[in-house]
Give the backbone structure.
Amino acid sequence: MDGKAFEKNEQNIITLRDSVRYKVEIPDTEQWVIRSRAENRTYQISVAQPLGDPPPSGYPVIYLLDANSVFGTMVEAVRLQSRRPDKTGVVPAIIVGIGYQTEGPYAPDRFYDFTPIPTTEYDRKPDGTALPEQGGAAAFLQFIEEELKPQIECEFKVDSSRQTIFGHSLGGLFALYALFTRPDAFQYYIAGSPSIHWNKQYLLEQERKFVSRVKEEPVNVQLLLGVGELEKSHMSRNCDNARELSERLSSLLSRGVGVAFKEFEGEGHVSVLPILISRALRFALSPEK
């Protein structure tokens, strides 16, 4: 490169550095803060809706837990794949992210909101610090059902027959808790790497009640359990727990419970999220549904 070319290139770099910069935002997305009536807890709600007029029945809706970590991932996956539903198997949908007022991907509040009871198996986090407060899943589910959903259905055109909840890790535990205790709340339940070990005995009790209930009164629900192959070595045994749960629930197909289990090759507890999201979209947003 001669001196003149170098000078021109250097000038371009300076111009770039001095240019005006703007904060990047996700298109067609809005966000607000809501405080629950029952326990006065604060949530940051993010909503992305498709462009154009909704279908007569409304858009399917996905309620996404831990929105601070994966809301953008899911929104862009839906935006890209729903452009050609005939090719991708994904129709447009509204994404409702439930998160917290934090700059990080996770907030300690999730320990309370996603767990039905305090764990009896653990007393500290892996790093040795004390566990946050737990045991608020019932109140959190009540908030979703009685406060958040009515607001979403008032402001957006929603197909109430195609509602999904997506949770990962402790969020996956909550998705299972919601299925077992309120199977009418959603039609699709996505439990990614669910922390079954956290409340294992309690969850088994709720599972037994759920099985007894659906044998008396059929339901119409679909459950996707997804784990990363590399999670097999973890002491929690969540891969085995999830697989065993899918095998037990598969006997309820005639009672309206569809179950799918997927182990994603080469993925770990966190890296599984993008591929699980993509699979979940085809699971819950198929054009044929």
